[in-house]
Amino acid sequence: MPTLRPFALIRTHDQWLRASHEQTALEGEVVQLYWRDDAPASADQTPFLERGAGLAFDEHCRLYHSVPAEGRLERLMWAAQDPLQPVSALPVPVNLFASDTEEQVGDFALPAEKPAVLSGAHALAVAEDDRLFVAESGGKRILIYDLWSNRLLRRVQLGAVPVDLVATGRTVYALLASPPGLIKLDARSDPYALAWPSEITEPARIALSPNGELFILEHAGTLQARVVKHSEPGQIIDVEFATDIEFQTGDPLLVQACGSDKQVLVVARRPGEDFLRYCLGESQPAVLPPLKARGYDGLGIVLAPDGRVGFWTHNGFRHTVAARLRYLPTGSVTTFRLDSGEFHTVWGRLFLDACIPKDTAIVVRCITADEPPDEPVLPRSRPANTNADPPFENLSPPLPPRSFKQRIENAFAQSMHRRETGRELPWVRPTEDDPFETYEAPVLAEPGRYLWVRIELSGNTRTTPRVKALRAEHPTHDYLRRIPRTFSRDEQIASFLRRYLAPFEGVLGELEAKADARGALLDPHSAPAEILPWLASFLGLTLDERMARAPRPGGQTEDVRRTLIAEATLLFRFRGTVPGLRRFLEIYLGTQTVVIEKFRVRGLGGAMLGDPTALTSSSVLGAGFRVGGAIGEDGTQTLTASVEDAFETHAHRFALIVPASLTSEQQDVVRQILELHRPAHTLVEVCTVGAGMRVGRGLHIALTSIIGRSDGFTQLQLGNALLGRGAILGKPEAGTVIGGSKLGEDSRVG
Questions:
Q1: Per mean pLDDT, which range of 224-233, 250-259, 489-498, 546-555 is the poorest?
Q2: What is the CA radius of gyration of the chain?
Q3: Are the C-beta atoms of residues 351 and 471 closer than 8 Å to each other?
């Protein structure tokens, strides 16, 4: 049985950080060429005097924008924006509150009255309960509006100037200046002061990271501008002329570049300058490619619902785009010492998981040693986009000795061969959306226990090669021991034969490894996707290709066909039963379903099986109303029905309740499953959330009733409901607390 050959591995961000970089950048776990901005725009040299303008989104994708110079707020339908249309065709922002803000509380004035004039509305925030918070710096207060009723709920008077707001859930953090401070509040509670670090003296903007950490921008618009972490004031990012900060989320490319456990901070600068991005983690931040913001007014940025960063221009709202970079033509990374554990080791093949676009290249140079000289090693150079040092740097494996510098630079440059079969491991293939492929080359170096690899990257300044992982096999194959000794007595001939036989050994070894691991083909969770129909045919299961497109809860995609094959034996064992049908449908839909056999609901508003003289009903609809009996009378009343009627309405019938809204394709697949796997003599009715439920017709408590949100229902329409009788216009609000509310402050009459 073949065994997996040992290999040395470099893959993680920490490992790449311990290597020595020259003109390369480290984005997450990927090494690439460093970049320079392609013709950066000249910045507006006008001094930064404004505090900024507020930008905020609510959960309905509506954008709120403050115009401090005019003392007003405006609302814009963000989804209706099309930047390709002419400015005249774009929707005009609506003046949000056209009334006097000095009134104590209550409805805003009629449009004919004098419009509101806000004194320095430099910051906005929208809480999840649709409460709009406005920081009015001129009046040193925070105004709280209800967006559904267009009412001023309360004014929070402060002793300092509010300069920025950030919301998380129903809580809002307010950044204060003159004197500096930080408070948190919600629509009902009074402000609560948080501890303020003395190191932060001139705060200007605040941002909340995805993991709940607060970051503050101070000295905005100056050479001394910097971003400081509120809980750790010693963690500082110096960004000259920074004007605003925001965290970017939801972009899969950022997850690939920065890592899923990292956070991407976007820093806006003066008009005409690119937005800078930083990958924040446990160590020093790493610089990511910048963003272009043409026409930025310098007054603030916001995170749009689709994960892009937005800003305001004289033509309205716009989104940032990736800056066009010019990469350095060449760069290299030298690994630390890789140890085989055995002296005089002949290293085998070298594998790189890399992305090599057209007009780019990667070559490797290798050197080895059994006992490196006792001398200082080459200094480690950081990646060009970060000043971070690896933790416990003194424990890192050493880089090449200084005397080896010329040796590794003059080592033979080996080109990489792309593997058409994918990974070197049997039956392991990259995913369809993975841009990285496996390249290989033999390690051309003298035998030695230790190995150093120099990876040289070259590009065309428009694209860059990328390296994700390195693996070095040790030792090499033993084919020389399987041929007559006369062919390997001479060292040069032996070296040539070793290299010549390496491709054959690789092919034969992979075939043997695949044969040994052929059990992976019979495992539905490890078999390649293209052979799943073949594997299902062993169990008499025909796969529906539409099941591969089934959406999964939480945005995750799971191969439904693999689960069906894995549980096919159990599904066929319980075929035609309630548990079997329910499990089959749950695998496809990804949600629990309810199967109701009609005979189980007899007596619940319908007939009962049994003696015709004993057909009774005890179902209660509402209070005091019994099906089959008079209103307001207790007891039961015999129903005038026959056993044949009960058999016709309840026998061999069942209903499938799906607590979700299904597409037409999903409904077709569900009916196909029911057609193939239900008992042939039964009749079935499919009820989804979109079909609606009515008490007494399709709704039974503890059977088919579901409490919670659903996208199967539409908004209330006038004419279909009675106002004041179970339906209201607008959004429900919190009730008034007796003894805890004040007339004129947070409650009103009428």
A1: 546-555
A2: 35
A3: yes
List the CATH code of the domain at 7-35+328-476. 2.60.120
Instruction: Report the relative pairing of strands 309-313 and 301-303 from DSSP bridges.
Output: antiparallel
Q: What distance in Å separates the CA atoms of residue 388 and residue 612, rounded to the nearest whole number?
A: 85
SS3 407: helix
DSSP code string of 189-213: SPPEEPP--TT--SEEEEEE-TTS-
Domain with CATH 2.130.10.10 in the chain: 52-187
pLDDT at 588: 87
Mean pLDDT of the chain: 80
CA proximity to 245, closest of 273, 224, 214, 271: 214
| Per-residue tokens: 622 | 């509402």
Kind plus residue range of the DSSP H or E element containing 594: strand 594-597
Q: Which amino acid is at 331?
A: G
Q: Distance of alpha carbon 144 from its chain centroid, rounded?
A: 31
Cα distances (angstroms) measured from residue 197 to each of 158, 218, 231: 20, 13, 8
Q: Which of 600, 583, 687 is nearest to 650 (CA)?
A: 600
Where along the chain do the CATH 2.120.10.30 domains lie? 197-321
Tokens of 504: 């054959």
Question: Residue 716 corresponds to which amino acid?
Answer: L
Alpha helices in 528-567 (DSSP H): 532-537, 560-566
Question: What's the fold here for domain 197-321?
Answer: Neuraminidase (2.120.10)
pLDDT, mean of residues 554-581: 82
> Residue 513 phi/psi, 5° resolution?
-65, -40
Return phi, psi of residue 56, to 5°: -155, 145
Query: Would the CA dihedral through 305, 307, 311, 316 be positive or negative?
Result: negative
Q: Is 52-187 in CATH node 3.30.1360.180?
A: no
Three-state SS sequence of 48-80? CCCCCCCEEECCCCEEEEEECCCCEEEEEEHHH
Q: Are 66 and 118 in contact (CB under 8 A)?
A: yes
> How far is it, in rounded angstroms, from Cα 301 to Cα 291?
12
Start-end of CATH 2.60.120 domains in the chain: 7-35+328-476
